[in-house]
Amino acid sequence: MQRVCFLLKVRGDRIAEYRERHAAVWPEMLAALSATGWRNYSLFLRDDGLLVGYLETEDFSAAVAGMEATEVNARWQADMAPYFESLDGARPDEAMKPLSEVFHLA
Questions:
Q1: Active site amino acids
Q2: Range of the domain at 17
Q3: Directed axis angle between helix 27-35 and helix 71-80, to 10°?
Q4: Is residue 15 part of a domain?
Q5: Is 34 part of a structural domain of the chain?
Q6: What is the CATH classification number for the domain harbouring 78?
Q7: Is the confidence at residue 96, as pLDDT, over 90?
Q8: Secondary structure E strands in the chain
């Protein structure tokens, strides 16, 4: 099982709305994440907009590719893109660059 952690930056003026959107994630988005191998997926948001994502999956590349193949993910990413800083034209899911794990207490 791979443990994956990534960082993104939510725009300061959109933090409250971003929290609201994630309090009611579309059921079809939740189903797609589960079906494509995203497990123990969590998002943590600091008050300054730093977003920390964590998930576990058998194969992160396959999990990302599986989501890219879904229609619901295309809609979700388009809706979420305006909430983020520094995407440089990428969708939010394309900007998720895994951090290197340097320690894990098993």
A1: 22
A2: 2-94
A3: 120
A4: yes
A5: yes
A6: 3.30.70.100
A7: no
A8: 2-9, 39-45, 50-57
Rounded CA-CA distance 27/103 in Å is 34
Length of the chain: 106
Q: How many domains are contained in the chain?
A: 1
Residue 53 DSSP symbol: E
Look at the pTM and tell me if it is higher than 0.70. yes
Q: Mean pLDDT across the chain, nearest whole number?
A: 95
What's the helix, strand, coil split of the chain in %, to 5? Answer: 40, 25, 35
Residue 104 lies in a domain: no
Q: Are 90 and 34 in contact (CB under 8 A)?
A: no
pLDDT band at 50 (very low <50, low <70, confident <90, very high): very high
User: How would residue 91 be classed by pLDDT, with cut points 50, 70 and 90?
Assistant: confident
d(CA 47, CA 27): 27
The answer to whether position 22 is within a domain reads: yes
Q: How far is CA 52 from the centre of its chain?
A: 9
